[in-house]
Prior knowledge:
By secondary structure, the chain is of the alpha+beta class. It has 2 domains: about 230 residues; about 140 residues, Immunoglobulin-like (Sandwich). Strand 6 and strand 7 form a beta hairpin. The chain is elongated and about 75 Å long. It starts with a helix and ends in a 12-residue tail after the last helix.
Amino acid sequence: MPVRTSHALILLLLLTTGIQRLHAAAYTVALSGNTTQLRVSEMRYLQDAAAGISPQLFYVWLLAGSIDTVTAMPFDRGYQQGRYLLGFSLTNSGEQPQSLQLATGVSSRPLLNIILFDDNGNHRNLLQHHGRAGFEQRPVAAPELYSRAFRLAPGQTVYIVIEYETNGDSYLPLTLGTGATLAQQRREARYSAMLYYGTGMLLLLCLAAWGIVKSSRVALAYSLLFALAWLTIASIEGYAFQYLWPARAQWNHDAPLLLLYSLSALGLLVARMAVFATDNNTALHRAMTLAAMLSLLLALATPFISAEPLQAAAGGLVTAMFAAHIYAWFNRLSRQPRLAGFAFPLALLLLLSASALLLISQNHALAPTWLGVDALRILTLIAQLGALSILPLTRGDDSAPPTKR
């Protein structure tokens, strides 16, 4: 077996493996800020496929202690279509009143209502969200959903009931904190996003400028690909809804999957172009083209098919796209006499990084929260740095394919 082929097989084998980290399960909402005087119960929940349980009835059962099912937090039932009711009690055991707020950690869901029940059974809505709501209807102007603030007197106990529907990703992290603490966290998240997106745009412009100066179609195609990648991430994180299409709720619901499949389609075609510039492997080119066509068809079908199977398939196509690009860069480096020795170690490093970050982005339990949030951003920056480093070193003739062998 040729050395290049054996190396490629090893890389593809490693792509299918991952090391999962185990975390101790928590059964309460996360607490943030000066909340040491709060007593929070375990999160109880019921699945309500028939939609026959109201939040008021769930509260009565919760108060009576008749709900036995406890869920680990963050709540996560994978990719599925479902309806759930969750609830917990909250007591202020201190001597000072507390002004509190609940952060959900998600940008949008088909239905997410948060209701507070006081000592007397009176209730008020802290959050009423459905997938058709425009951005201006949110109680807090942020990419993620936040409840309204509420006040908890000394010694007071309240119950929080969450009415939750999913169509695809069911992940729901919940953080309870003071209004000031969560506002500070939102500012920090905004600064972090500005740093990531600003760096991504700078690298994108550098690659585009180099492509224009050197007349490299591959570099220009990569620039377009990375622009679409950052738009996809902004759509997933909610920044696109906040700044680009705040009044288009239905489009915002469909956009993340549609853009993700469009990204995998364009990415496979760009990888094909990068490979074709140095290696006229007809079978590989056909496989990339077919995978790109499949991605494009799934992108067009997004508005008409349930998100549950589409989200499950998206991870495989995105993984195939990254594998194609790593192979393209490995192929280009291995054909340069001075760089051939670095081809396999660099491709292996990129492969392991991409595998770990893709795994983390699809399985929230494998990493700390901050890394789970930033995984796609970090992966995109690594890809941009790889393209900006490797393409100038291995340019060759990116304007025309090599002669058939």
